[in-house]
Amino acid sequence: MENFRQLQFCNGCNVCVLPWELAGHSCVRQRVLNGRNNHTLGHMGCSFQGVTVVEEFITEEVEGCWVREMDRDDRLWILSQSGRRKQEFGPKVNFKKEEVKIDPSGTIFPSWSQEFLQLCSSSSSLLSDFEAVELGLLEYEPLRGSCIAPHIDDSW
């Protein structure tokens, strides 16, 4: 993993650039002022299509309600080896054995998540026919040493 370089994503023009190329830049503002974006891709930049970032997707009030619902039953949180806490709903995955176990009674999502899924499908034509099969909540707390380490997702 040490051979990987960190890039940052500009949501305004779907480009990944070196962090210092993005610093202090407002792509949307520049487009309004210049009629174009001002990124130079440099030797490490690249076009990054297929990712959609929806800014201000929910209000702070809704976020607070959902977080309170997530935290209502502390027994649902599982502490992992990496120091993070997680709640998982849906099929159980064993990455080492490359196995997936599906509950025969079906996936049961928490009640608050129905509003979230409805909002997802109504907010974007890309998600209009999306059907969730799993839901994972991950809490990274620096005081516990948890973080998202650079990695490549499993692809089996």
Walk me through this protein's architecture:
- It contains four helices and eight strands.
- It has 156 residues and is an alpha+beta fold.
- A three-stranded antiparallel β-sheet has the order 1-2-3. A three-stranded antiparallel β-sheet has the order 4-5-8, with no helix packed on it. It has a two-stranded antiparallel ribbon with strand order 6-7.
- Strand 1 and strand 2 form a beta hairpin.
- The longest helix is centred in the C-terminal third of the chain and has 13 residues.
- The two termini are 19 Å apart.
- GO terms for molecular function: demethylase activity; oxidoreductase activity.
- It comes from Guillardia theta (strain CCMP2712).
- InterPro entries: AlkB-like_sf, ALKBH4.
- One of its GO terms (biological process) is demethylation.
Summary keywords:
156 residues; alpha+beta; 2 domains; three-stranded antiparallel sheet; 4 helices; Alpha-ketoglutarate-dependent dioxygenase AlkB-like domain-containing protein; AlkB-like_sf; demethylase activity; oxidoreductase activity; ALKBH4
Estimate the global geometry from the Cα principal axes.
Answer: globular
Which residues form runs of ≥5 with pLDDT under 50?
Answer: none
Evaluate the radius of gyration: 19 Å
Q: What is the count of structural domains?
A: 2
- Please give the count of helices: 4
The biggest beta sheet, please? Answer: 3 strands, antiparallel
- Give the strand content: 15-25%
Mean pLDDT: 80
The helicity comes to: 10-25%
Number of strands: 8
How many angstroms does the end-to-end distance come to?
Answer: 19 Å
One letter per element, helices H and strands E, the order comes to EEHHEHEEEEHE
Strand order in the sheet with the most strands: 1-2-3
